[in-house]
Specification:
- There is one protein chain.
- The protein is mainly alpha-helical.
- It folds into two domains: 61 residues, Orthogonal Bundle (Arc Repressor Mutant, subunit A), CATH 1.10.10; 130 residues, Tetracycline Repressor, domain 2 (Orthogonal Bundle), CATH 1.10.357.
- The chain is 72% helix and 0% strand.
Length: 200
């Protein structure tokens, strides 16, 4: 089968996404990505400038997908529990995003990450939505808006990021499905308590 120029970057990103999630960028070679995608290794450089550019592109696609799937705006901010539930569901169904973010943290440490300026704008928009809701009394202002956003992400995503700890802290759920329902309910309620304070 002959690949078109549109097929090649898609195949490279698909192959790289699986490899990066499993082994991180440092544990994945250009040769391995190209082999998995069924293309010449030079295509990685031609389309993405190298492995680092490809990793940034793969993670960027994942972040765009969650941004489109789980929105937070002035119209929905009062339903903070629903937002938390959607975040929980997304991370449960898409664990690759958490793996890629953890690899990114390991590789870059405290240094700026690729596309940090644009990504910061995305998060700061959500922070400002929370800040406005705190100013108008929709949300409690006990927790600074940036910290509140981070905490909401943490309590909804960490279950899928470290499933071994979730398993070891488990009590009383007989099935994985029952555990998942209970965890989701706990994450939603925790979000409401954090964001709404005594009104929750």
């Amino acid at each position: 089968m002959t690949l078109t120029s549109d097929d090649i970057p898609t195949r490279l990103k698909r192959a790289a996404g699986e490899l990066f999630a499993a082994s991180g960028p440092d544990g994945t070679t250009v040769d391995k990505i190209a082999r998995s995608a069924g293309v010449n290794r030079e295509r990685v450089y031609a389309y993405f400038g190298g492995k680092e550019g490809l990793f940034a592109n793969v993670l960027g696609d994942e972040l765009l997908a969650i941004a489109e799937a789980v929105t937070l705006d002035a119209a929905s901010i009062a339903e903070i529990g629903a937002f938390a539930g959607k975040l929980f569901d997304y991370h449960t169904n898409n664990p690759r995003l958490q793996r890629l973010l953890q690899w990114e943290a390991l590789v870059f440490g405290s240094q700026p990450v690729p596309d940090e300026v644009e990504r910061r704008k995305h998060y700061q928009h959500k922070v400002e939505v929370i800040a406005q809701a705190q100013r108008d009394g929709t949300l409690s202002d006990e927790i600074p808006p940036g910290d509140l956003l981070f905490l909401l992400i943490a309590i909804t995503a960490w279950w899928s990021a470290v499933p071994q700890i979730a398993r070891m802290t488990e009590r009383g759920s007989r099935t994985a499905a029952a555990a998942g329902r209970r965890r989701r309910a706990s994450a939603v309620r925790a979000a409401e308590l954090l964001a709404l304070g005594h009104r929750a």
